[in-house]
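Q: Start with the shorter request: fold the first protein.
A: Done. Sequence, then structure:
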Amino acid sequence: MNKLLKKALLIVDRGSREPEVRLELQNICSIAKRKARYDYTNYCFLEVVPPFIEEGIRKCVDSGADFITIMPYFLYPGMKLKDSVKQSAKIGQIKNVNIVITKPLSYHTIVTDVVIDRIYQLKREHKIQFSDSECDILLIGHGSSDKCARNAFIYTVNTLKPFYRNVNFCFLELDKPDINEGIKNMVLQNDPKIILLVPYFLHNGTHIKYDVIMDVDEALGKYRFKNVFMTKHLGVDEKLVDLIIERAKEVEKRRIDLL
């Protein structure tokens, strides 16, 4: 690997107006810079609010970077991921910048480990005495019209099944079952002792703050099951940063050795 190259890592997120999302991304960039010794790390957004991808790449170049690794920071290989990859590749080509684009976060057991950590934290904080084999888990995903996104989500669901009594899934929007159906099925079909809800979201954005909570509360009001707890979202986690770095190394070595 060429040690003289100044390397940048640019994380491309979907985009959010919530200040907590920016703070989480700043923290992730800081951890990645420390752990992988990038010369520069930053984030940008695909949509919603700036900085957008073009500005993110420009800032990397302005920092003096000779080489930019772009990480599409998505849990699913859906339409938003594809848009971010296409835009990044096009802008890099137009600006004649040395870039590589990593795989997203999907299809990796590190994500499973983070979900298990969130469940463990929840049980500890609420002093839940049920063993894992007595707990029913419901993962709440965002949802997508893209079948590839659904398949990636179900992959994580399946990797969790060996550890808990029952693991199922539902979606906030764009796919079925929705949250109402997901909770209904858990309560009426599985005779649970306890249900632990896992919001499968990267950030503390609008969906976590409002939408998921509203739909969960509405469903629980219908089906009157009281022993329900919800974990935190995935958020800032060193394990996720390790996955970012692993994905980056997968594509960097092949390209950098040629420069």
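Q: Next, the second protein, separately.
A: Sequence, then structure:
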Amino acid sequence: MKLLEIKNLSKSFDGKKVLEDISLSVDQGEVVSILGPSGSGKSTLLRCATFLETMDNGELSYCETPVVTSRNGKAVYPSKSQMKEAKSHFGLVFQDFNLFPHYNVIKNLYDAPVSVMKRDKDEVMEECRKILKKVGLEDKEKAYPCELSGGQKQRVAIARALVMNPDMLYFDEPTSALDPEITAGILRIMKELAKEKMTMVIVTHEIDFARAVSDRVIFMDGGFIVEQGKPEDVIDNPSNDRTRAFLKKLSV
């Protein structure tokens, strides 16, 4: 099943095109990494896919159900209830964690499932504790974000996304604010999720990680998808000059 399908997505800010005619799809169980220089449109693509930004034009479907359609060259968004249904299909992990500072760890996890999804609190709490154990934070459920390291905050952010039982997860540069040692721990968790066949779309600058876990790598530059394919093709044997130049800079 195609969990995500985007067709002909375009987005401008103040008259400047940031994304131009982007089309891509993501199958269930697939891990897709998006690489590219700063300003290439990677994060904006994720923000459009997760409704944090509105597309100017294009179509978007989740689980083969159309969500955003195109009419007369403009993107048309559905009702609030349809948007809520579409948002239930994915979780998003930000580079700056986005935890609620006034909630402790366990409340950061259970608040949305209980208050938004109206799930049973005891059942959700049990699930939260299992997921905290999975990310190695079973002893931190009563801690507040200000008491946690950057790596611990990112683990909480991943746990919070998992508690919502999404079909797929988006990661926007999840390790960019972390030092190398802590980064390794976050990447280990993501590798475990990949082994469990969690569908993931990952904007990252971690080339070795992208090579190791991705089924497909997309290289973006200037608001376009320049090249995509298997990691061994795009990373190790790119066919496009822009991809080669970008990877060469990273390896220096």
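Q: Describe the second briefly.
A: The first helix runs from residue 42 to 49. Residues 101-165 form one domain.
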